[in-house]
Design brief:
It is a single chain. 43% of the residues lie in helices and 13% in strands. The termini are far apart. It is elongated. Helix 1 crosses helix 6. The C terminus is likely disordered. With 373 residues, it is an alpha/beta fold. A nine-stranded mixed beta sheet has the order 1-2-6-5-4-3-7-8-9, with helices on both faces. A three-stranded antiparallel beta sheet has the order 10-12-11. A hairpin with a 4-residue loop joins strand 11 and strand 12. It has 17 helices and twelve strands.
Length: 373
């Protein structure tokens, strides 16, 4: 499709009353969106538009220039893909309420079909953040693109983990790509654009209004073959994504949490209702029939390298423990504990969660006696 024709699609996308169904009516009747843009009111009615939509279109199009719209996108480094463009995601094209125009900042790649959507509550617990980070990190290391909504909480944690792992991640916004919400994720959004993509169905200038978020979530589920929920309490927006995933015949997965935690109430219920229970990244790979390629972690990265590391792991669990407590329990010199923990963190065995507190990040194999002395 020519740049000029794309410009008319982008221009029509500025008209609030013209959505997927009316795009299809206009294209089917006129053969091109350029002809539809130049059509008279009578011709638009003949194409099947109602009077309200015709009035809105005729009024608004006098203030919109397709060429100016394309120039504006170019200045902001944003690409626009119509439903007919090869760059439009195949999985998204399959959903009923696909967006006629998709705005992208960054790059969408064919391998991004090997992806999972990770969503959850904004009001996370330490457990939820740790689980979301570990699973997203492991998936990214295994070449799986992590898709989420850039929101506070689980969304931001999942994006951050994918970036930390050197993998790809895609953020779906409920606003134009020139408006990052929440604003504290602006720097992370720039990283995502360099290591994946920011995408939206909204043109630049659209603010992140509350009504946009439930509809945005259909794109979150539509971009991937499966959605993983990590912590969702009552009323969580993640449940909108789950409903859309179900309607789109996509897989739904959930991480179990404490039955006493309000943050896990709905995610646990999803498992009761038949969602795949996920205890680690391997469960996601299995559920979505992904094979681990390319960046799969080597066994040596998750094994303790010597007896000192084996000893330290004895005292480090999945609950935060301070370095001083580790040192006292192990009886090792402070310098030895500090240097070993640094190397273990680099390899992904442990993680510092603030204040010199450490947690174990994955289950190391039980037969530690095989490690070299």
């Amino acid at each position: 499709m020519s740049r000029e024709e794309v410009g008319y699609w982008v221009a029509f996308n500025r008209i609030p009353t013209i959505g997927r169904a009316r795009f299809a009516l206009l294209e089917g009747h006129f053969g091109s969106m350029e002809r539809a843009w130049r059509a008279s009111s009578d011709e638009l009615v003949a194409a099947g538009l109602d009077q309200r939509s015709v009035r809105s279109l005729v009024t608004r199009r006098s203030t919109i220039s397709p060429d100016a719209e394309m120039e504006r996108l170019a200045r902001q480094g944003i690409d626009a893909f119509t439903i007919h463009d090869p760059g439009y995601p195949r999985l998204l094209r399959e959903i009923y309420e696909y967006p006629p125009v998709l705005y992208v900042k960054g790059e969408l790649e064919p391998d991004d079909e090997r992806a999972v959507t990770i969503v959850g509550t904004r009001k996370t617990t330490a457990y939820g953040r740790e689980v979301a980070h570990q699973i997203a990190w492991d998936l990214a290391k295994n070449g799986v693109t992590v898709v989420s909504g850039l929101a506070r909480g689980i969304d931001g944690t999942a994006h951050r983990a994918a970036l930390d792992a050197g993998g790809r991640t895609v953020a779906v916004l409920a606003s134009g790509l020139d408006t990052i919400y929440p604003p504290e994720h602006s720097n992370m959004a720039r990283e995502i654009a360099r290591n994946g993509a920011l995408v939206s169905e909204h043109p630049p200038g659209v603010r992140p209004e509350a009504k946009n978020f439930p509809r945005r979530n259909r794109l979150l589920s539509g971009l991937t073959p499966g959605t993983l929920v990590v912590e969702a309490g009552e009323g969580s927006g993640a449940l909108w994504t789950v409903r859309h995933a179900t309607d789109q015949n996509r897989e739904v997965m959930a991480v179990p949490g404490s039955i006493l935690s309000p943050a896990s109430r709905e995610s646990n219920r999803l498992i009761q209702d038949g969602a795949k229970m996920v205890l680690g990244y391997a469960d996601v790979l299995e559920e979505l029939n992904f094979s681990a390629l390319g960046q799969q972690m080597e066994l040596r990265q998750v094994l303790p390298q010597d007896n000192r590391e084996i000893q330290l792991l004895t005292w480090i669990t999945y609950e935060p423990v301070h370095i001083d407590e580790i040192q006292r329990a192990s009886g090792l010199p402070v310098a030895a504990v500090s240097s070993s923990l640094t190397m273990m963190e680099i390899r992904g065995l442990v993680k510092q969660v603030g204040g010199m507190n450490y947690v174990r990040t994955r289950e190391a194999p039980a037969l530690y006696e095989t490690a070299p002395a």
